[in-house]
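Kindly inspect what follows.
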Amino acid sequence: MSLTRFLPVPSDRMGILWTLLNIEGSVIVEYGPAGTTHFSMGLYGELGIEQENRLFTTHMREEDVIMGDTTRLEKAILEVDENYSPKVIFVVASSCSAVIGTDLRGVCTMVQPKTKAKLVAFEQGGFRGDYSFGLKAAYDLIAGTLAAGGAEHRPGTYNILGASSGAYRCKADVLEIQRLMTEAFSMKCLCAMCLETSVEALEAMTGADINLVIRREALPAARMMEEKFGIPYIYGVPYGYRGTSDWLAVIGEKLGRIVNPKVVGELKRKTMSLMQYRMYSRMFRRDTMKAYLYGEYETVSGLSQFLSDMGIRAAHRISAHSLAPLELREGAEEITHTESEKQRIDILRGLERTLVLADDTAGRLISNTNTFVRISTPLIDGSQVATHMPLVGPRGADMIREYVDSYLNTLR
């Protein structure tokens, strides 16, 4: 790991934990020192994740590490099962237990006959990559173990796959997607994997008409559910007016449904209103309209296209997480990932009169000639409380336009 001045990118273990903490009716037992769990709890609180009676650690003594004794873990699983009666217990490795190679799956297999809860093991301890690897692992295992076949078919329903509380404004984005699906198709969300969901909702996922994949990390899970349960899926996120219209058209074609003409008409009207922005580029004699974007892969990709619709060139498009997994490589050539923080700092310090859509770290580093828009975590100088201010859909596009208008006032 390179030297980090601000905040390091969360590991795969963190991505797993913040995903699992969103599942009501489940409990996490982390096999590791209490300090590692305590350190991460501050981040979960910042993300708005409920932790009370949801996350437990076994602690580990020196003899547990040296001798490989898992007695403490076995007792913790049985105690949680008896005292809290969860439907599922996720047994998660810490960096310490992962280093010594503790066989968590073997422990779960041995203890399973003694518990009422279903035991699911995650052996990633933070060494396989950043949080995008953890999200993929969590989505894969959840879809493979909790999405049960034979669930009652519920016509007019859909699932959202790839919802991650680590993504900025994710709850607001999910609510906007649900609003769009209601207004465009009169359809209801069955499950959002994994944001404020439950074991029951995950078990009922296979009864939906379609899966809406909003993160590439969830594509393997969607493909598995299509092959195993025959549920079709589409991959995409509705950023901008034209992007939202195209997204709804693909869903309608997949389902054989007609998009509500009223929704189509409103999106078309808003798309036409963007034509005025292209005229501004001819008015500026000194400056050119350009943007810097840093955040989740889909956010960077979608918002850069929306800015392009307004004639604003994305000079830098940087993913906050690795693009190493196979599912993230295909079609990602135009978006980069800086391995060192220094590379990103050097780029930010060189920006002038640029629309900067990024995290709070970027907001601190850029000069005051730039216009800053927060679209990514970590949050250092603010918070995310409102759930009516998404980045996606027409409401998200409206908000971005307000920042664009402020940015244009700084150009000459």
